[in-house]
Design brief:
2 domains; Endonuclease III, domain 1; 212 residues; mainly alpha; Endonuclease Iii, domain 2
Length: 212
């Protein structure tokens, strides 16, 4: 892996570690980020927090009002239903709206718990554990999936498969840096269409260099 080169080009990213009490914030925030831009998802999350003071109030909110509140984030009808379903599941399992138990679980058990929630996928689960608990995991979105395959680090068809194939290759303590910098590379250089291989810092190590 060319981690040092990525860090030389993009820097070593500052680790945004949320307090454990914010795990529900991380979960809902990641759900809102699905299939939309960071700007839109942050706008929707701010609107949600401004309108509803507690997660209990989100759970008990009128579905139409909740949908309207997060409309700016896109796919509001789907996401609002998903958020309320997940909150209900957590309430029934834990007896309260808390993901505190995740702090005591090993990574895989934490992943399994989150993946068992309706509508939570591998990327969302890994983001909650990485951002919310500081776990040494590398969530895989479309950018990480695409770049890792082009570099030949994995040979997978789906991001969830990439997540499983990639984790053991990452040096200890470097998962966050890799996650952030692969996304940066994927957004600016190794784009889905017409990647700029000429200016890619990893071109010398990439078997796909020169693709169109």
């Amino acid at each position: 892996m060319s981690l040092s080169i990525l860090e030389q080009v993009f820097g070593i990213p500052y680790f945004r570690h949320s307090p454990e009490g914010d795990l529900l914030d991380e979960l809902v925030g990641t759900i809102l980020s699905q299939n939309t831009s960071d700007t839109n998802s942050r706008r929707a999350f701010r609107a949600l927090k401004q309108r509803y003071a507690t997660w209990e109030s989100v759970l008990n909110a009128d579905p139409d009002h909740l949908e309207e509140t997060i409309r700016g984030g896109g796919l509001a009808a789907i996401k609002s239903r998903r958020i309320q379903i997940i909150l209900k599941e957590i309430q029934e399992r834990e007896g309260s709206l808390s993901l505190h138990r995740l702090g005591a679980l090993p990574n895989q058990e934490g992943m399994d718990y989150l993946l068992s929630l309706n509508g939570v996928g591998c990327k969302t689960a890994a983001c909650v554990l990485m951002f919310g608990l500081g776990r040494d995991l590398c969530p895989v979105d479309t950018h990480v999936h695409r770049v890792a395959n082009r570099l030949g680090w994995v040979k997978t068809r789906q991001p969830d498969q990439t997540y499983g194939a990639l984790q053991d290759q990452i040096p200890v303590g470097k998962a966050y840096s890799l996650h952030i910098n692969l996304i940066r590379l994927g957004k600016t250089v190794c784009t889905a269409r017409q990647p700029d291989c000429t200016h890619c810092p990893l071109a010398a190590y990439c078997p796909s260099a020169g693709i169109s």
